[in-house]
Amino acid sequence: MTTTTSDLPVVVIGAGPAGLAAAAHLTTEGLAVLVLERGPAAADAVRQWGHVRLFSTWAELTDPAAEKLLAPTGWVRPDASAYPTGAHWAEQYLQPLADVLGETVRYGATVTGVSRVGRDRIVDADRAEQPFTVDYTTPDGREQRVLARAVIDASGTWTLPSPAGSNGLPALGERAAADRISYRVPDLADPAVRARYAGRRTAVIGSGASAFTALAALDELAEDAEGTHALWVLRRGISGSTFGGGTADQLPARGALGLAAKAAVDNGHADAVTGFRTAAIEPGDAGGLVLVGDDGTRLDPVDEVIVLTGLRPDLSFLSEIRLTLDERLQAPPALAEEIDPNQHSCGSVRPHGHRELAHPEPGFYMVGMKSYGRAPTFLAMTGYEQARSVAAALAGDIEAADRVELTLPETGVCGGSGLFDDPNAQTGGGCCTPVPQLVQIGVGSAAALQIGDADQPSGGCCS
Q: Are 209 and 74 in contact (CB under 8 A)?
């Protein structure tokens, strides 16, 4: 087999926002590209949370190179100041972009392995000169293989939600209770989903934007369905940063999520349990589920559990690729130090591109959500700039690839300085009681905070 790879395509894994942006930039650079998408249409993962409204406006959700490809079709970007849902994003931008790319995008292609022709990860000889092999399966079970000059993994993290267990493993009993546990924000516009939570007691485990969204949805449901109540389970305590940036967040809709979650508690439709680390989920009386903490604390029974503790990258199909990943976040080390919630607030990502995203395997890159590993605060505009830089590098324009500019809004949905998950933290990430406590937040309570108040100390305590 010839070792010449210049006539081979760049294979992009995933037809989501970052993957399609990469394909658009590669096309603009004049490089052949093949996008492998596991779903039946573009942005399959985005469609699965299509009922959720983004906290970014249309102005922050479209890529310049993609817009240029779309322009000849008569496509017009929606109102730049509007906030689309995931479904709107997929239907009004991502699918039209995939349609423009045409046969470049191959649907129903689930990637099962990436390697080099004739080289497993151990072999050094002429490794960089060998084409990549990308194996995938089709919906009818057929196994296929394509060769590539380079591979861009933009497959995201949607398929691997983190479990309820505070140690990163499923809590004891979590698998057995799978029919009562969801790892997604519920779509209460779906009658079956609405009936599942109406008039019932639901535990929401998590402290990010997804948890805020779930709490706000259950709060709205409680207005119509008597008996609906949420139990918000937090590993940390209540502080000035618990509900995000509020009115101080440079992405107003993101700040509003935290305010909506706070309203759910203030309205009496939710209680917050702080300093609780889930170890087990056990059957309770009358068919309920009981969350048990690491210290043996048992919460009152709930009917349903929604686990929103983050997402993880699927590295299973990359076992033959030489990767360098941060031992904590599973992100490229040069990038991990900038986004690690154990170190600092997450609104300070410095400009980055192909150099930070590269791995010991020449020609292999991760972009999009997957590049952040387990870090939770990725924004679409980050992925678009990553895609531009990587495409320029693959096209040989290193000057353009190195010319990376990225300015992100200050984020309110993140941990604090060096104390992201410390239940006894006194600064940065806030502090909480030394043992799990039920906190009812409202006017006059010790934990009532003015979210977004510039004078509010970020490390405020609660008890």
A: no
| DSSP symbols for 343-360 | TS-TT-PPP--HHHHB-S
Q: What is the pLDDT of residue 286?
A: 85
Q: Are 344 and 378 in contact (CB under 8 A)?
A: no
Name the nearest CA neighbour of 132 among 24, 22, 10, 36: 10
**Nearest partner of 110 among 70, 152, 71, 155, judged by Cα:** 155
Asked if 164 contacts 171 with a C-beta cutoff of 8 angstroms, the reply is yes
Could you tell me how many residues make up the chain?
463
Taking only Cα atoms into account, the Rg of the chain, rounded to an integer number of angstroms, comes to: 23
Closest by CA position to 410, among listed 212, 263, 254, 261:
254
Q: Using the predicted structure, report yes or no on whether residue 74 has a pLDDT greater than 60.
A: yes
Q: Which residues pair with 75 in a beta bridge?
A: none
Residue pair 213/52 in contact by the 8 Å Cβ criterion: yes
Q: What is the pLDDT of residue 71?
A: 97
CA distance 353 to 312: 21
Q: For residue 117, count CB atoms less than 10 angstroms from its CB and return exposed for 0-12, middle for 13-18, buried for 19 or more.
A: middle
Q: Is 281 exposed, middle or buried (0-12, 13-18, 19+ CB in 10 A)?
A: buried
User: Coil, strand, or helix at residue 2?
Assistant: coil
Is the pLDDT score of 131 beyond 90?
yes
Rounded to an integer, what distance in angstroms lies between the CA atom of residue 450 and that of residue 459?
13
Question: Quick check: helix, strand or coil at residue 327?
Answer: coil
| Residue 419 near residue 425 (C-beta atoms within 8 A) | yes
CA distance 225 to 261: 18
Q: Hey, is 351 helix, strand or coil?
A: coil
pLDDT at 36 over 60: yes
- Determine how many CB atoms are found less than 10 A away from the CB of residue 10: 26
CA distance 358 to 79: 36
* The pair of three-digit structure tokens given for residue 133, joined into one six-digit string: 């092999």
- Residue 174 CA to residue 280 CA, distance in Å, equals 7
Distant-in-sequence, close-in-space partners of 348: CB < 8 Å, separation ≥ 6 = 338
